[in-house]
Amino acid sequence: MRWQNQTLDAEDGALPGLSRAGLVRTVRTPEFEGITFHEVLCKSALNRVPEGANVPFQWTVNPMRGCSHACRYCFARGTHEYLDLDAGRDFDSQIVVKTNVAAVLRKELGRRSWRHEPVALGTNTDPYQRAEGRYRLMPGIIRALTESGTPFSILTKGTLLRRDLPLLTSAAGEVRVRLAVSIAILDQDLHRSLEPGTPSPRARLDLVRALADAGFAVDVLVAPVIPCLTDGRAHLDAIFGAIADAGADSAVAFPMHLRGSTRGWFLSWLAEHHPALLRRYRQLYRRGAYVTPEYSAWLRARVAPLLAEHGLMARTRAEPETRRRTTHTTGSQLALFA
Ligand code: SF4
Q1: How many A from CA of 21 to the centre of ligand 1?
Q2: DSSP state, residue 199
Q3: 322 C-alpha to center of ligand 1: Å?
Q4: Which of 17, 256, 285, 301 is most buried when burial is the number of CB atoms within 10 A of its CB?
Q5: Which residues of the chain fall short of a pLDDT of 50?
Q6: Which residues are CB-contacts of 166 (< 8 A; sequence separation ≥ 6)?
Q7: 80 CA to middle of ligand 1, Å?
């Protein structure tokens, strides 16, 4: 039985941050070695995007906190500190699961005041990370959104999304559904080192193909572009070529930013694996979380012709009536959060 051999820890002694988050129990299981699940009951599921955020959606849903995909550059890391967990290994291995999120969401979407504005998933942590295989929260979320007539988008690195493809295809007949896949790195060694918990780049390209074959117009985020490691013309040309071959509709690319705790976590990796680049990074990120405007402009100039060459320019294609699309988001805007 699926739930056998798991260890339950009593709530006693739980971190105060987790108690505040509604901790019910803590679970470890041999199927997910090295990962601890903290099951919580959330009070609300819909999060309003802060005023002034430059994104085309007002609401997000985040079924989990922390992400076992463990991307070294993930900018959601700092959110774990609100739970009194650390932004490094704890973020990768202490996963907070909102087990009642679908039921709470359904209730919120049923309010007379709900205006059916677009809802984005995958803007903070990945809803199709490994834990979703155990908890199966997404089918309930997708049904709640669809049945309430709410358009939605999903951004993921998780090939587990394939499990829900029939449900998503059916949802797209009722509401606008936009699907985006994140693929930042083609090189196997770099992928294993920098995003060790994610499916391989090949598996994600196959996911793009499966979504495109199912009739979705798929956006791909080539993000973040990691200065001096993935910004070479050959790498970008190869990754855009592979994405186009997989049937994606559009792609966007933008440079890595290093905010808050993510900065130290990433730079400690850089110091270990590419110490010679530290000086260059100090220059590039001398203004803080973002690369210099000069680097951004240089990258834009490098990326634009490649996107055009591979037919991946966002919003430059005719929009066939039959394609399932939303108009509410572009990859670059989504990526402000992912
Ligand atoms: S970047 Fe996305 S997939 Fe990677 S750890 Fe963060 S939330 Fe998970």
Answers
A1: 21
A2: P
A3: 32
A4: 256
A5: 1-13, 316-338
A6: none
A7: 13
Pick from 26, 24, 28, 68: which is nearest to 42 by CA?
A: 24
Strand order in the sheet with 219-225: 46-48, 59-61, 119-121, 152-156, 177-182, 219-225, 250-255
Q: What is the pLDDT of residues 302-312, one digit of tens each?
A: 999 999 999 99
- The angle at the Cα of 191, spanning 190 to 196, to the nearest 5 degrees, equals 120
299: Cα separation from own chain's centroid: 22
Which atom of ligand 1 is closest in space to residue 157's alpha carbon?
3
Instruction: Give the DSSP letter of residue 254.
Output: E
Q: Count of alpha carbons within 13 Å of 121, Cβ hemisphere only?
A: 29
Question: Looking up tokens 């988050």, which residue turns up?
Answer: 21
Label the pairing between strands 152-156 and 177-182: parallel
Strands 119-121 and 152-156: parallel
Q: What mean pLDDT is reported for the chain?
A: 89
